[in-house]
Amino acid sequence: MKRSTVFLIACTVFFACQEKNKYGKVADTPTTGEITIVADESLKPIVEAEVETFNALHKKANIKVIYLPEADAITAMLREDSLKLAVVTRGLTPEERKYLMEKNKVRARQDSMATSGIALIVNRENPDTLLTMDQLKDLLTGKKTTWKQIGGRSNNGIEIVFDNPNSGLIRMLKDSVAKVDSLPKSCFAVSKNEAVVDYVSKNRNALGLIGLEWISDRDDSTTNAFLNKIKVVALAGDSTHFQPYQAYLALKYYPLMRTIITINREGRTGLGTGFSAFFASERGQRIVLKAGLVPKTMPLRIIQANTKPFAIE
Q1: Banded pLDDT at 25 (limits 50, 70, 90)
Q2: In angstroms, rounded to a whole number, what is the distance separating the alpha carbons of residues 211 and 226?
Q3: Residue 18: which pLDDT band, with cuts at 50, 70 and 90?
Q4: Is 41 in contact with 89 (CB distance < 8 Å)?
Q5: 268: pLDDT confidence band, cut at 50, 70 and 90?
Q6: pLDDT for residue 40
Q7: Contacts 24+ apart (CB under 8 A), 92-95
């Protein structure tokens, strides 16, 4: 038998044995193929860093990301069969897990990848950069509306600006801080985190709420450009104020923390599973560390030179 014929038969057997999807195409594997995932828009910097590195390491893999407000991202993952993975900041509700089981006979896997936070930012000309959690709650419930009422120097009203009404950031603040169904009129959305930074940089009375990912990586040019335009507020649960630095997240001193998780609804071991495993691996967690966040699956060494951590009193 000719060598070319043997090669052709071998290729035919190989591709015939490969798993096919419901469209008859060769299915993706943990390191090959092409998929689209969804992610909370406020997590874009860290998700982008993880995806770009994964794609670069695995030349036959191509992961594309659709960035949406968190509520929309989870809804899309539940309803669209082609979307097998979501990167968000909350787990599925019992109703959502039940929906997946009834529709796809699938149990979603949920894995914690990093500890992040919500950062509060103000205009560079604003002298008021200290807030307590009680003051933030009063602002989010409408009990207080001016800088003077929260210990500031100005009688001007505070404009609270955030990314999107369906974002995970606002969900957390409404559910865990303000404990309200709706926010006061002083709060409004501007579509995405970059727009929040831009608005705050141009409006002295604005108080912005953004994902920490946008300002945590001090080696990133976008982060530094943003930090040159705004100031970061220090928050306190009691009398001591902390800014959202990596060490203060790890020590749980900063009060507005949140967890980044992957929700995987693949019924098999495909590219979504491969990416989630990479995110949790040493290499993926080093990307988390470099981004100024706290890894979930590898230890973080914190060296304290003083008996008390540096804080703003």
Answers
A1: low
A2: 13
A3: low
A4: no
A5: confident
A6: 97
A7: 92/263
Q: State the average pLDDT over residues 174-181.
A: 93
Exposed/middle/buried for residue 118 (C-beta within 10 Å: 0-12, 13-18, 19+): buried
Whether residue 277 has pLDDT greater than 50: yes
- Distance (Å, rounded) from C-alpha 1 to C-alpha 4? 9
What Rg value do the Cα atoms of the chain yield, rounded?
23
190, amino acid identity: V
Residue type, 297: T
3-state secondary structure labels for all residues of the chain: CCHHHHHHHHHHHHHHHCCECCCCCECCECCEEEEEEEEEHHHHHHHHHHHHHHHHHCCCEEEEEEEECHHHHHHHHHHCCCEEEEEECCCCCHHHHHHHHHHHCCCCEEEEEEEEEEEEEEECCCCCCEEEHHHHHHHHHCCCCECHHHCCCCCCECEEEECCCCCHHHHHHHHHHHCCCCCCCCEEECCCHHHHHHHHHHCCCEEEEEEHHHCCCCCCHHHHHHHCCEEECEEECCCCEECCCHHHHHCCCCCCEEEEEEEECCCCCCHHHHHHHHHHCHHHHHHHHHCCCEECCCCCCCCCCCCCCCCEC
Write the pLDDT tens digit of every residue in 212-252: 999 999 989 999 999 999 999 999 988 899 999 999 999 99
> What is the residue type of 111?
D
d(CA 187, CA 179): 15
CB 100 within 8 A of CB 92: yes
Contact yes or no for 146/157 (Cβ under 8 A): yes
**Beta bridge partner(s), residue 111:** 262
The predicted model scores a pTM of 0.86
- Contact in structure between 115 and 240 (CB atoms under 8 Å): no
CA 165 to CA 172: how far, in whole Å?
A: 11
What distance, in Å, lies between the first and last C-alpha atoms of the chain? 84
